[in-house]
Write a structure and sequence with these properties.
Distance between the termini: 20 Å
Strand order of the largest sheet: 2-1-3-4
Number of domains: 1
Number of strands: 4
Strand content: 15-25%
CATH architecture: 3-Layer(aba) Sandwich
CATH superfamily: Alpha/Beta hydrolase fold, catalytic domain
Oligomer: single chain
CATH class: Alpha Beta
Order of helices and strands: EHHEHEHE
């Protein structure tokens, strides 16, 4: 929990080509009533500059604990949507003392030869330019 609030923390890892706001936007206000909600844009998405290299999942995965640190949060639930699924799993495995829960919504596999890679997508997400509609599945409770 954050030192500044008694609400549990929920860190959002978004899907490819999205952002925490686009993936969970319609439910962010409802989540914020119960949770301290935060997240970060993956490189080349949301408000970050266009990526110059293919996305590697370790970078965004290490962003989650860093975002928690910046928010004064020691322990948190990690919520991953689509590509955010494998991003959220990494801190849960690497920092089990900090991750209190894991919510995976339609997690995509990490890019591999079988499932494709950013290089096969022309260096960008296959969903780039599409809109994502959140349905309330970002919440750690029903």
């Amino acid at each position: 929990m954050s030192e500044s609030t008694s609400r549990p923390a929920l860190l959002l890892a978004h899907g490819a080509g999205g952002s925490p706001a686009t993936n969970c936007g319609p439910v962010m206000d409802r989540l914020a009533v119960r949770y301290t909600v935060t997240g970060a844009d993956h490189p080349g998405t949301g408000s970050t500059p266009r990526a110059t290299r293919p996305l590697e999942l370790n970078g965004p995965a290490e962003q989650l604990p860093a975002v928690a640190d910046a928010a004064g949060v020691e322990r948190f639930t990690a919520s991953g949507f689509a590509l955010g699924g494998p991003v959220a799993i990494r801190p849960a495995a690497r920092h089990p003392e900090r991750v209190t829960g894991l919510v995976l919504t339609a997690p995509s596999p990490a890019p591999t030869r079988r499932y494709g890679s950013p290089r096969a997508w022309g260096g960008r997400s296959p969903s780039r330019g599409t809109r994502t509609r959140a349905t309330g599945s970002c919440s750690p409770t029903p």
